Amino acid sequence: MSAVRSLLPVYSLCLREIVRFVRQRSRLVGALGQPLLFWLLLGAGFKGSFRPAGEAAGVDYLQYFYPGIIALTLLFTAIFATISVVEDRKTGFLQGVLAAPVPRWSIVAGQAAGSTALAVVQGSLLLLLAPVAGLRLTPAGALASVMVMILMAFSLSGLGLLLAWRLDSTQGFHAIMNLLLLPMWFLSGAFFPAAGAPAWLGWAMSINPMTYGMSALRHSLQVGTGQRAAQAATWPALGVLALFGALAFSGAVLTARRASR
User: 48, 68, 108, 254 — which has fewest CB within 10 A?
Assistant: First the structure.
């Protein structure tokens, strides 16, 4: 009974996020349409004039930028989903949830699960565009990419919840997003590689946890293509990403407990 009592709010809040998303189609346009527009415009614009440093011959910018666009879709979805915490606080729904006799971790887990599910579904849709990017995506590569996206989306959702539980306004959340989350994407290797970057910028990229998620995602897309070195490099990156996700989720749970006092 205790396990059911803890898992029920996880399922309920996760389902609520999914139903809310289905009813707000503008979120789909914002989370999926904007990254696609970036990819098509920037990728096509740089394709003929820029070859990513340190990449194999034949890799153009459209192909290099493709995993970064998947990561940006995960980031936008996590932002739009976790900002609902601020809105729920204004409407009183969050106070009602906190008054329920359920553990705080289950509330945060339900919110994170809903955000993660939405992000992974949208990210998986972009895998259909792999041939357009010039990538040969194998079934094993698609499965590996989805697994990486789950971990990446959960980590970003945990970070978003950690911020959202501390803020009282959507304006403040957007300000933090522009100050922290988007720079994390820019400095993840999604937009440009660390090779050839100034030393200080390379250092900033090395301490960015999203850099390791991007590395794991790039390598997972190559699973099944015979590039064993790339596959072997995925595991350390996944370890760093998993640690980041665990810390972000734990921080969100602690923040939720303080908010309920």
Answer: 48
